[in-house]
Amino acid sequence: MIQFEKVSKVYQHNGNDLRAVDGVDFTVHKGEIFGVIGFSGAGKSTLIRLVNLLERPTEGRVLVNGEDLTQLPKPDLRKVRKRIGMIFQHFNLLESKTVHHNVAFPLSLSGTPKKEVDQRVNEILEFVGLSDKAKQYPEELSGGQKQRVGIARALATSPDILLCDEATSALDPETTKSILKLLQKVRDEYGITILMITHEMNVVREVCDRIAVMESGKVIEKGSIFDLFSNPQHPTTQNFVRTVMENDIPASILNGIEERGASRNIYRVTFVDESAGQPVLSQVAKKFDVEVNVLFGQITELQGIPFGHLVVELQGEDQEVLRVINHIQQTVSVQEVTSNAG
Amino acid sequence: MQVNLMDFWPRIWEATYQTLLMVGISLLAATLIGLPLGIILVVTRQGGLLENKPVFNAFSTVVNFFRSIPFIILLVAILPFTRFVVGSSIGTAAAVVPLVIFSAPYIARLVESSLLEVKPGVIEAAEAMGASPWQIIRRVYIPEGLSSIVLNLTIATIGLVGASAMAGFVGGGGLGDLAISYGYQRFETDIMIATVLLLVLIVQITQTIGNFASKKIRRQ
Ligand SMILES: Nc1ncnc2c1ncn2[C@@H]1O[C@H](COP(=O)(O)OP(=O)(O)O)[C@@H](O)[C@H]1O
Ligand SMILES: [Mg+2]
């Protein structure tokens, strides 16, 4: 569990205060995958480095499993750091050491007997699917394989927290997916709490239970992945959502709506999972005296569950249309669309 | 008087031996001093593992001071010190002292630049894993920088071969001394050529070994 309590980190920049992290306040629960998303320079890396005290907070506190690490003497801090794994965008592996020795590194730091180290390394390499690469050097591996080594190394000391700083940002989309799957497996099998930061919406969409959106050092919005996708409040959040799902109705369709006159019944139906959406609408067409005309739609996947929205026109008597809305609102969320507002 | 090259071989061998001895001992001693100095310069610099401005400035100034003195001046200037250390101010052993003082600060700078090539991210990863500063020096900085250090030590060795040629001034002997006293001052062209060829050979072999060792270390 990680608790950020009104944490700020202030740097001096040309004599001015630069609030890289500004009053951040949220909790990452045990066994949760929590994502922090924000554009470059938002303060994400600074925030994540406050957790293992690579940076010290200027104000506020960060509690790791209830403990304020700033209070610990250095040797104790080092001990605690062994319980907090970290992986990086550029992997940061030891180039002069084999995969085996890279993964063994954190264990050998605490003087673990060689036999025990070897056993643990084999076990963890098996877990990340790199048993056959133990004797190779990092430069002989692909980016995805290097990150697997990074994950293996971070897990070697059996931590209860894993920090991921842009762990997939240097990888192609396919490799990103496989690394995210692996992180999910890390959480599911070891119950490790994962805090990941990224500037890519498709990363948080894939694996995060909850996300926080950061801008200029502040958390501007946070919530479950479904909340943020279905109802993003802040313009920045809306922009991020738009990077993976087009929310705006294309201009050509809007123009069509305008042309066909004023009294139109156009709605945006937002749905989660396949039981909603299409079936609801086809039922409507059968049950009620209305025609359902789908103008536009977007479907994406959040944590493996279909999520999307359809923009539909309901053609029929106003009374009947109202009845339809009341009916479908029980299963999906419905918003009216006007031609001048997406 | 003309000297026959064949008759002169024993002198050449002796001079070669003296050169190798001077260079070898100086290199060893200078590395023993320069390596820790280089490490201190890296870890105490701004943003370093054990950032400490006064310590960094002090060491950096001392290193710069000795690096700015031309070898031939250093050689003479420290004669009293040399006598104090080796008990004599002439001979091969006496030449080693100025060679060490000349090359240790140079090696310190070379080690510094090698260690600065180690990616900061790797150091940070080790810190995040709970490594102590000493563990980071011994198990990250040195192994990760070793290949580059070896390459740089090769450069320092070749510099030592060149500087050792001036050891004649303190009766240090060696190939350079031979080339100057016979080849240059007595116009023995054969001996001049032979000694220069031997120096070239020594430099070539040193570079080849250095390149090989550096490559080998990089991938082990
Ligand atoms: N050590 C530092 N000294 C001064 N400014 C810093 C330092 N680290 C980060 N910053 C500044 O803090 C802000 C946030 O940086 P960072 O946390 O790296 O953002 P992100 O990871 O979201 O891209 C940036 O403006 C950056 O320039
Ligand atoms: Mg960053």
Automatic annotation (TrEMBL), chain A:
Give yes or no: UniProt keyword Kinase. Answer: no
Q: What keywords sit in the KW lines?
A: Amino-acid transport, ATP-binding, Cell membrane, Membrane, Nucleotide-binding, Translocase, Transport
Domain spans labelled ABC transporter: 2-241
GO terms under cellular component: plasma membrane
What is any Pfam family matched here? NIL
User: What are its GO biological-process terms?
Assistant: amino acid transport
Q: Name one GO molecular function term.
A: ATP hydrolysis activity
The UniProt entry's sequence similarity note says: Belongs to the ABC transporter superfamily.
* Designated name of the protein: D-methionine transport system ATP-binding protein
User: Species name for this entry?
Assistant: Halobacillus dabanensis
Q: What is the lineage of its organism?
A: Bacteria, Bacillati, Bacillota, Bacilli, Bacillales
From TrEMBL, chain B:
Instruction: Give residue ranges for domain ABC transmembrane type-1.
Output: 16-210
InterPro entries in alphabetical order:
AA_ABC_Transporter_Permease, MetI-like, MetI-like_sf
Similarity comment: family membership? Belongs to the binding-protein-dependent transport system permease family. CysTW subfamily.
Q: What is this protein called?
A: D-methionine transport system permease protein
Q: Give the stretches traversing the membrane.
A: 20-43, 55-78, 84-107, 149-171, 191-213
Lineage: superkingdom: Bacteria
Q: Which NCBIfam families match?
A: PRK10782.1
Principal localization reads: membrane
Task: Tell me a GO biological process for this protein.
Answer: D-methionine transmembrane transport
Instruction: Work out whether the entry's keyword set contains Methyltransferase.
Output: no
Q: How does it sit in the membrane?
A: Multi-pass membrane protein
Instruction: Identify the PANTHER family for this entry.
Output: ABC TRANSPORTER PERMEASE, TRANSPORTER, PERMEASE PROTEIN, PUTATIVE-RELATED
